[in-house]
Write a structure and sequence with these properties.
Strand content: 15-25%
Structural class: alpha/beta
C-alpha cells in the first residue's frame, strides 16, 4: 500500500499502484491545514487500511513531512505491543535520520498503550511546550467519546491528548469494537457509522499488488460423537455440533485430532511453497500456552517440524519475533503475540487454532500473511476448523466495515458505564500471573475492557462441562476452499493456471 516516493515539484506523494493521487498523506495535510474544516476534528485524521497493507511507513513519512513544513516539533507514537512500537521507532528514525527513544537529542518516542498508566507529568507537559504530532496505531483499542464511556486506554487520549496535540493520525485495519463503544478521536454520522478520512481496502491492495489474494481452507468432519452419561448424539459437521450447543468451540479447536488435521494440511502447503520460496514461513495461532506446547509437540512427533513458541511467558518475546522475521525457520507458534501490526512479510501460511472467534481478530490474524514481497511465490493461506462464524468472516473479507459491526453503542452523558477490568487479567487463556512484569508491555491483543466480548462463552455449555461427557471425532475429515466474495476479477482460472504451467515448462 504505502511504498511512497515524493515528487519534489508538486510536493505530493505517489503510491505504488501507479497513478499519482492525493491519498492519505496528502489528504491528512490538506485536512490539517484547511481553513474551512471543522475546528473540533480538523487536527484528527483516521486512516483505515486493510491488515497487511503496511501503515507504519505512511505514518512516519507523514510525520516527517509535517516537520519539514514547520508544523510540528515532536512526534509521539502509541501502539498495542512492544514489537510494533519498536517498528515505529525504527521507521521514524529512518525517516528523520535521528533517534526516537525519548533521550536528549531525539525528536520523540514510541510507547505501548500499556504505558499510559506510567507516563509522568513531564511527558504530558510536552503538549504545553511543543507542537506534538501523535500517531495511534490500531486505534480501535482505545474507546471513548468522553470521560463517561472511555476505557483505560481511551481516557488518557481524551484527557491529555485530544485537545492539546498539534495533530494526530489514527490507524486501523478494523475500525470497530467488539463492545460497540465509540473509538477515541473518531467521528460518527448517520446510523452511528464511523467516518474514516481515508480508506484503502483489501481489493485495492490486491489490485495494486500490495497484498496477496487470501485463500482459506476450512477443515470439517462428518461424524462427531458426543457421549454424556448414558446419552449419545452424533453430528455430521462442526456447524451442527455447535448449533446444538453440544460442546464449545474451545473444546473443538484444542482437540488433539483436530489440531493434528489442521496443522498437517498447513504443513503440506508450506512445504509446497518453500520449494519455490525457501524463506517462506508459517504461523500458528494457539488458544493458550498449554495448547501452543501441545501443537509444538504434535508438529515434531507427527511431522518432524520444529515450531518456535512465542508467548507472554517470556522476558523478551518481541526479540523472538524479530529473530524469526529475519531468519528462515519454518514455523512460529504464537499465543497473543502475533496478531496485528506485527510485520513478518515472509509469512505465507497461517494456521488458525485460537478459540477467539471475533471478526476483528480473524482479520488481524490473516493480515499477517497478506503482505506481498519480492519472492517468486505469493500465495497466502489460512487453515482453520469449519466454524460457522469464521466461515462467514472469510466470505466477506473484502468488506471494509461489515454492516453488522458498524454501529456503536449510545451512552447518555448522565449514565456512565463500567468497561474496565484488571490489567493483569485481560487476555483469554494468557497466564499473566506466571508472566514476568516486563512481559506485560508485550501483550498486543485487546484493551483491558475487551476480554468479556472475545472469550468463548462457556456458560452456554455449562451443562456439558459440568457433566461426565466425552467427544469422539471419528468420521472422515474433509477440507473446503472457501470463496472470498468480490475477488473474482483478481482470481486466475484453472485453465489459465494450467497454461501458465505449460509455458513455464516450455521455458525450462
Amino acid at each position: 500500500m504505502f511504498t511512497i516516493r515524493e515528487n519534489s515539484t508538486l510536493g505530493f506523494y505517489y503510491f505504488s499502484g501507479g497513478l499519482p493521487q492525493y491519498e492519505c498523506i496528502n489528504l491528512a495535510i490538506s485536512k490539517y491545514t484547511s481553513p474551512t474544516a471543522s475546528s473540533d476534528f480538523k487536527k484528527h485524521f483516521l486512516a483505515l487500511a486493510t491488515p497487511g497493507a503496511g501503515k507504519t511507513i505512511m505514518a512516519a513519512t507523514l510525520a516527517r513531512k509535517l516537520y519539514e513544513l514547520g508544523l510540528i516539533d515532536l512526534v509521539l507514537c502509541f501502539s498495542p505491543s512492544s514489537i510494533v512500537s519498536s517498528d515505529f521507532s525504527d521507521e521514524l528514525s529512518t525517516q528523520f535520520k535521528t533517534e526516537f527513544n525519548g533521550k536528549v537529542g531525539s525528536l520523540g518516542d514510541a510507547f505501548t498503550y500499556q504505558r499510559f498508566g506510567t507516563l509522568d507529568n513531564d511527558t504530558w507537559k510536552l503538549f504545553d511546550r511543543f507542537r506534538v504530532f501523535v500517531i495511534f496505531d490500531e486505534i480501535h483499542h482505545c474507546a471513548g467519546s468522553s470521560n463517561l464511556n472511555a476505557n483505560a486506554w481511551g481516557a488518557p487520549i481524551i484527557g491529555n491528548i485530544r485537545d492539546k496535540a498539534a495533530f494526530t493520525v489514527s490507524l486501523t485495519g478494523t475500525p470497530w469494537r467488539s463492545d460497540a463503544l465509540p473509538i477515541a478521536l473518531s467521528q460518527y454520522c448517520d446510523g452511528q457509522k464511523i467516518q474514516c478520512d481515508y480508506v484503502y481496502g483489501l481489493k485495492e491492495a490486491i489490485k495494486d499488488k500490495v497484498c496477496r489474494i487470501p485463500q482459506i481452507v476450512a477443515i470439517d468432519n462428518d461424524k462427531i460423537v458426543i457421549t454424556k452419561t448414558k446419552e449419545r448424539n452424533v453430528y455430521n459437521s462442526f456447524t451442527s455440533l455447535l448449533a446444538a450447543k453440544a460442546t464449545s468451540y474451545s473444546k473443538i479447536v484444542t482437540d488433539n485430532v483436530v489440531t493434528k488435521q489442521v496443522t498437517r494440511r498447513a504443513i503440506i502447503k508450506l512445504d509446497e511453497i518453500r520449494k519455490v520460496n525457501k524463506n517462506a514461513g508459517g504461523l500458528v495461532i494457539a488458544s493458550s500456552i498449554e495448547h501452543a506446547q501441545k501443537i509444538r509437540s504434535i508438529m515434531w512427533s507427527e511431522f518432524g517440524k520444529r515450531g518456535e513458541i512465542v508467548t507472554t511467558n517470556e522476558v523478551k518475546p518481541s526479540l523472538k519475533i524479530k529473530q524469526f522475521r529475519s531468519n528462515s525457520k519454518e514455523w512460529l507458534i504464537s499465543v497473543g503475540m502475533v496478531s496485528e501490526g506485527t510485520n513478518i512479510p515472509r509469512l505465507q501460511v497461517c494456521c488458525n487454532l485460537t478459540n477467539i472467534t471475533t471478526e476483528m481478530y480473524f482479520r488481524q490474524i490473516f493480515g499477517r500473511v497478506l503482505r506481498k514481497t519480492g519472492s517468486p511465490n505469493q500465495e497466502a493461506f489460512m487453515f482453520m476448523p469449519a466454524e460457522p462464524k469464521l466461515m462467514n468472516y472469510a466470505e466477506r473479507m473484502c468488506q471494509d466495515i461489515p454492516d453488522d459491526v458498524s454501529k456503536i453503542k449510545t451512552v447518555k452523558m448522565d449514565e456512565p458505564i463500567e468497561t474496565e477490568l484488571d490489567d493483569e487479567a485481560i487476555f483469554d487463556d494468557v497466564e499473566m500471573t506466571s508472566s514476568p512484569a516486563s512481559a506485560i508491555e508485550d501483550i498486543p491483543i485487546f484493551s483491558p475492557d475487551e476480554k468479556e466480548f472475545t472469550q468463548i462463552d462457556e456458560e452456554e455449555n455449562k451443562s456439558i462441562l459440568d457433566s461426565t461427557w466425552s467427544m469422539g471425532i471419528v468420521g472422515k475429515y474433509r477440507q473446503d476452499s472457501l470463496k472470498v466474495t468480490d475477488l473474482e476479477p483478481f482470481l486466475i482460472s484453472e485453465a489459465a493456471k494450467d497454461k501458465l504451467a505449460d509455458l513455464g515448462r516450455l521455458a525450462v
